[in-house]
């Protein structure tokens, strides 16, 4: 920037200064250009994101709203079916980096240092110019991965697109021996993980051929390269009354080589020219067609299993469609009447783009944390306590980021990296697991509790002289929970909760003294049906006078066990509980 001159470039490198004219004043005011206290006297290069903000709703609007505010050479494209922009809507810029200030390059500085400079440069104004929200996660701490999951789960519930993870490193690393992925960022979206992006079955109602795309397949005699995805408008009438099907085409997809060969080999969609199609009616919006209509219609539609990255309202359509859809499977044994209808698709899209309330510590938040943990290799969280013990004479191995191992550019090699990447420990630093001998439970005992003693706190363990009950199936599904309980001396917890409650109630009715003064229930709150059953059971107990005295029952989600380990492990000096001051609060579910 020089004087009042400024340029705006898009990600592709295109000069978009004229197209973003509505943003010019906002940028100049946020930098205080022309004012006495501006810090930009000569030039600067900033990075930011263009969004649309609604003053009445006090929130950022979906990305498809941008096209109503940004022209292309003076023309607003693909907005014919959009509503007019309201007076409360306007463009906004969110700054997230700076790489040059006053002709001095900042690319050799760490991200944290660059962001500090950026923070002192920008004059923020709510809804117009702001700094990107950010959180620092130190993976030198035991709960770094857990913190990331919590943040990610909250972002998912807030219907955010995802997270961008950046190492605290220079913008570029020009060293000859640069580390792999040095200075790279990571886009983290739930759809990148497992089957979180699965939507369901859709009908492929037509296709066309593109000669350029066909070259990438190298399949002799290939007839189709692009497939048109349709949703039934009258699904119930078709299934119940045999009415002529009516489809709205919502997306056009390409297939990978393997799936395309399956379609060619095993399918028979009975293709026909569009003018000869009598099987059903098709609606094709201009925004979907984009000048390339299907050249054949499948009178016997194929059934594709699709996944996508959220939903979008493409220009000149007027409805929600899949964003970046991809075909994961072809179902040759299913009929188009079993696929998702147009109404169902719109409902899915609205639900996926509507923010829920009470995001923090909600039941749904816990469920997403559990899903993210289960998505790690073999269903075990990568930050789960290692199945090993360190010899007392040996110091614990240091945690290292994937990006550690070598100096950075100027000013970037003095501290450990803060980055949202899991720490790993080399196998050579681990000792073979050696569990101490434990007392074997008697087969006649109903409430075996503290068997061999806690390896961390001995008689001072939370579970010492208490009965521990676990919800049905927990130990089979959560190997980590079983291992952690054993480390705290609980080898044989009570798994028949109903039998224990019955025995406890009978003992109180007969006036017999109960053996234990404390009891702990460990369950999986992410298992919604089971948790609802347990919650109902405990709610009834709270109304029972027999349980108003005697044994106190505390209920915890099993994910509190790593916190318990951190609390009782004296070798851990820095007690980090994911930001909670009281380690019991995060996963505490109630007390009777």
Chain-wise SSE layout:
Blueprint (H helix, E strand, L loop, with lengths): L20 H10 L13 E11 L4 E2 L28 E13 L2 E2 L5 H11 L7 E3 L12 H14 L5 E4 L18 E4 L9 E11 L2 H7 L8 E7 L2 H7 L4 E8 L3 H10 L4 E2 L8 E4 L1 H4 L6 E12 L3 E2 L8 E2 L3 E5 L11 H12 L9 H12 L92 E4 L3 H4 L1 H9 L9 H13 L8 E6 L4 H15 L9 E6 L3 H8 L19 E4 L1
Organism: Fusarium beomiforme
Pfam family, one: DNA_ligase_A_M
Protein name: ATP-dependent DNA ligase family profile domain-containing protein
Summarize, please.
The chain is an alpha+beta fold and 592 residues long. The chain has helices spanning 21-30, 111-121, 144-157, 211-217, 235-241, 257-266, 286-289, 342-353, 363-374, 474-477, 479-487, 497-509, 528-542, 561-568; strands at residues 44-54, 59-60, 89-101, 104-105, 129-131, 163-166, 185-188, 198-208, 226-232, 246-253, 271-272, 281-284, 296-307, 311-312, 321-322, 326-330, 467-470, 518-523, 552-557, 588-591. It has four domains: 1-134, DNA ligase/mRNA capping enzyme (D-amino Acid Aminotransferase, Chain A, domain 1); 136-193 and 355-432, no CATH class; 198-340, Nucleic acid-binding proteins (OB fold (Dihydrolipoamide Acetyltransferase, E2P)), CATH 2.40.50; 458-591, no CATH class.
């Amino acid at each position: 920037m020089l004087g009042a001159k400024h340029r705006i470039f898009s990600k592709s490198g295109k000069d978009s200064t004229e197209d973003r004219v509505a943003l010019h004043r906002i940028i100049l005011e946020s930098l205080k250009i022309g004012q006495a206290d501006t810090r930009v006297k000569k030039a600067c290069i900033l990075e930011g994101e263009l969004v649309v903000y609604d003053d009445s709703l006090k929130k950022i609007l979906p990305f498809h709203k941008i096209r109503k505010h940004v022209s292309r050479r003076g023309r607003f494209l693909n907005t014919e079916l959009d509503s007019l922009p309201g007076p409360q809507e306007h463009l906004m810029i969110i700054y997230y980096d700076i790489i040059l200030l006053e002709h001095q390059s900042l690319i050799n500085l760490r991200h944290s240092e660059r962001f500090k400079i950026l923070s002192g440069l920008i004059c923020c104004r709510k809804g117009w110019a702001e700094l990107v929200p950010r959180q620092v996660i130190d993976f030198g701490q035991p709960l770094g991965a857990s913190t990331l999951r919590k943040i990610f789960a909250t972002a998912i519930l807030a219907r955010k697109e995802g997270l961008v993870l950046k190492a605290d490193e220079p913008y570029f690393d020009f060293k000859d021996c640069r580390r792999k992925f040095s200075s790279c960022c990571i886009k983290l979206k739930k759809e990148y993980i497992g089957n979180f992006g699965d939507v369901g079955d859709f009908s492929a109602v037509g296709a066309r051929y593109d000669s350029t795309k066909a070259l990438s397949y190298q399949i002799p005699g290939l007839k189709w390269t692009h497939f048109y995805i349709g949703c039934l408008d009258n699904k119930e009438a078709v299934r119940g009354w045999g009415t002529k099907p009516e489809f709205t085409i919502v997306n056009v997809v390409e297939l990978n080589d393997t799936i395309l060969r399956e379609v060619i080999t095993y399918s028979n969609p009975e293709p026909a020219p569009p003018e000869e199609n009598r099987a059903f009616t098709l609606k094709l919006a201009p925004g979907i067609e984009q000048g390339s209509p299907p050249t054949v219609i499948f009178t016997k539609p194929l059934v594709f299993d699709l996944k996508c990255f959220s939903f979008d309202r493409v220009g000149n359509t007027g409805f929600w469609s899949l964003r970046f859809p991809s075909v994961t499977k072809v179902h040759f044994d299913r009929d188009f009447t079993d696929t998702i209808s147009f109404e169902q698709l719109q409902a899915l899209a609205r639900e996926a783009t509507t923010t829920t309330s009470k995001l923090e510590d909600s039941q749904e938040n816990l469920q997403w944390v559990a899903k993210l943990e289960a998505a790690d290799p073999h269903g075990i969280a990568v930050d789960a306590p290692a199945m090993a013990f360190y010899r007392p004479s040996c110091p614990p191995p240091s945690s290292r980021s994937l990006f550690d191992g070598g100096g950075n550019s100027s000013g970037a090699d003095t501290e450990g990296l803060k980055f949202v990447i899991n720490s790993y420990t080399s196998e050579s630093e681990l000792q073979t697991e050696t569990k101490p001998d434990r007392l074997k439970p008697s087969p006649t005992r109903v409430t075996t509790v503290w068997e061999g003693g806690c390896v961390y706190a001995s008689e001072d363990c939370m579970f010492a002289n208490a009965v521990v009950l676990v919800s049905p199936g927990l130990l089979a599904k959560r190997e980590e929970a079983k291992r952690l309980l054993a480390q705290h001396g609980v080898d044989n917890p009570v798994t028949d909760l109903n039998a224990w409650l019955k025995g406890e109630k009978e003992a109180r009715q007969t006036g017999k003294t109960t053996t234990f003064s404390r009891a702990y229930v460990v369950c999986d709150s992410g298992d919604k049906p089971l948790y609802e059953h347990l919650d109902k059971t405990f709610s009834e107990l709270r109304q029972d006078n027999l349980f108003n005295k005697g044994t106190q029952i505390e209920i915890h989600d099993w994910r509190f066990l790593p916190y318990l380990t951190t609390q009782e492990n004296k070798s851990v000096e820095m007690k980090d509980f994911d930001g909670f001051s009281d380690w019991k609060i995060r996963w505490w579910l109630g007390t009777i």
